[in-house]
Amino acid sequence: MKIVYPREEWCIACYLCEVACIAEHSKYKDPLKAYLLENPRTPSRTNVEYKTPVALSVMCRHCAEAECVEACKNGTLTRNENTGRIELNQEKCLGCWMCIMACPYGAITPFKKNGGAVASKCDLCPERDVPACVAVCPNRALVFEDRG
Amino acid sequence: MLYKNPYNHYFDFIVQRDLDKCIRCKGCVTQCSYGANYYDEHRDLIYSLDYNCIGCMRCSTFCPTDCIRIVRNPDTFRPNANWRDNFIKDLYKQAGSGGIIVTGMGNDKPSRIYWDHMVIDACQVTNPSIDPLREPMELKTFLGRKPDLLDAGDGYELKTKLAPQLILEMPIMFSAMSYGSINYNVCESVAMAATELGTYWNTGEGGLPKSLYQYGRRTIVQCASGRFGVSPEYLNAGAAIEIKIGQGAKPGIGGHLPGEKVLEGISETRMIPVGTDAISPAPHHDIYSIEDLKQLIYALKEATRYEKPVSVKIAAVHNSAAIASGIARAGADIIAIDGFRGGTGAAPKIIRDNVGIPIEVAIASVDERLRQEGIRNQVSLVAAGGFRNSGDVIKAIALGADAVYIATSALMAVGCTLCQQCHRGRCAWGITTNDPDLAKRVNPEIGAERLVNLIRAWSNEIKEMLGLMGINSIESLKGNRDRLRGIGLTESELRALGIQQAGL
């Protein structure tokens, strides 16, 4: 299946992937409104790890053997058998953070939503052909590929 | 600015940020390599230190909400036609530092740009123009010594032994830019593009990293006064060798790579210690005459078994024509002439802006002189120095060049915004820097694609322009000055260019 792969050698830490992710997952689909109006603002599902000169954007690997799905107690995290993607249903999430503990990539982020606390992670932008972070990356440091 | 030196106050640009649109993503902070933008966590605001801004537009380009504008600092001295702003600011700088002011890129002074005063002829009614989309159009160019006579023999085999030639698919090559002045990723972008296009790139005087030997057959290797990175393997790795005598941006002085830019890979390729300034001598100390030059030309030919053409690159200066004649007689196969608008990675500003002559007149005078002496066929002429578009290229060829070298335009294709800070080694666009954090800003995949696009676009435009002149091969335009006319030039300028006034 196709997932997003970071190419560390070309990541320039411009944070556009984070901005595009936040805009894409806001109801406005616009960076300005997503940052200034949306409350609570959804966190970026990809995170730029930057310690000069190393930089790379890290997000969910949609693992074949997903530790997060194993750890999730109530079926918030499931594998979609059709697409192979790991999906996170925020309506169900109780905020126990077992998935965050389990994820070996640190790709799941907690955030407060409507009084409760829920987890958030990359969903590969189901409404788009190419995820927003890949489309926005100016240096091809993120690619959407099937590497088997 | 509390602790500022009052004389450093006169900065050029202001970073204007519309705080209503700023989302604090901090992209501008990481992208600015000159420390002009910073995030204040106490006020959750991004501010700018305007005096650090050099106007490269990296931050405004990358801002996802377009909230940044780089504007000229309106702070103004009393307008003075003699004491213009840049003279005043440079004077203050020197009074503070006592140093020579170093800068990058080419001469930016508003001296007459002759390209803008030449127009091209077109066919109408009596001589048909050619449509390059429907009919073949030849841009293939051969650089190297051409024989005085061709003996076709009696069969199908040419009896005359031809000198080695460089074969270009279009009359445009990438000019010398050394590894070190530009980083590895940019070198690789240019090398990949030259290989794909079927033209040549030039190593400059910094040697050729081993990992780029794979592009050797599309590489011109340079041998300059510092002899950085020159070895038998290096000379044989390329398709041609270029002896660099001078450079348009700094005629009469040697190359200068500041020590800040000499990192591990550059040190290995140039064979010098890390962090040392790589300063080439002003002259080649083994070349004080045309006879000495001849010795080096033949030494290099000997080292490469007479299989590769040897080029000699000089800066365009007052007596270029006589010098070029000497170079042709010394055995060079190609003469490259670099005009005073040619770029550089580092040059004293006073030299960049005041020394040398425009390439337009240099190429015209050299071509004319070589024709008069009957030795034009012995060398190919390559013009360099500030080609901005295909119009300039085609005018250079009509003036007598066989091909042109481009470098500034090539760097612009990979992102350069002409901020003239190459010498500082902090290029925010990741071009003239070897800092690993910045150098990765040029991804050679993208760089090569953009270079290929640029040259393809120019080639198509050149074909269109040849077509409208009724010419179907670039060969037929070479030195064909009858297809050029001058507008707004004086009698003596027209004479120097060897063209007629429009309307005559």
Strand portion of chain A: 15-25%
What is the 3D shape of chain A? Answer: globular
Give me the CATH architecture of the largest domain in chain B, please: Alpha-Beta Barrel
Structural class of chain B: alpha/beta
List segments of chain A where confidence is low: pLDDT < 50 over at least 5 consecutive residues.
none
Number of domains of chain B: 2
Please report the number of helical segments of chain B: 15
The third-level CATH topology of the largest domain in chain A is Alpha-Beta Plaits
Biggest interface, chains and residues, is: A-B, 23 and 20 residues
Question: Any overview of this molecule?
Answer:
The complex is a heterodimer of chains A (148) and B (504). With 148 residues, chain A is α+β, with helices and mostly antiparallel strands. Chain A has helices at 16-24, 31-36, 67-71, 98-102, 132-136; strands at residues 2-6, 47-51, 54-58, 77-79, 86-88, 109-113, 116-120, 142-146. In chain A, the strands form 4 sheets. Chain A has a two-stranded antiparallel sheet with strand order 1-8. In chain A, strands 2-3 form a two-stranded antiparallel ribbon. Chain A is globular. Chain B folds into 2 domains: 6-99, 2-Layer Sandwich (Alpha-Beta Plaits); 141-146 and 169-501, Alpha-Beta Barrel (TIM Barrel), CATH 3.20.20. Chain B is built from 15 helices and 21 strands. Chain B has an 8-stranded parallel β-sheet. In chain B, strands 6-20-21 form a 3-stranded mixed β-sheet, covered by helices on one side. Chain B is globular and about 90 Å long. In chain B, 51% of the residues are buried. Classes of the chains: A alpha+beta (148), B alpha/beta (504). The A-B interface holds A 9-16, 18-20, 31-32, 35-36, 50, 52-53, 55, 138-141 and B 21, 23-27, 30-31, 62, 64-65, 430, 435-437, 440-441, 443, 445-446.
Keywords:
heterodimer; A: 148 residues; alpha+beta; Alpha-Beta Plaits; two-stranded antiparallel ribbon; 5 helices; 8 strands; 20% helix; globular; B: alpha/beta; TIM Barrel; 2 domains; 21 strands
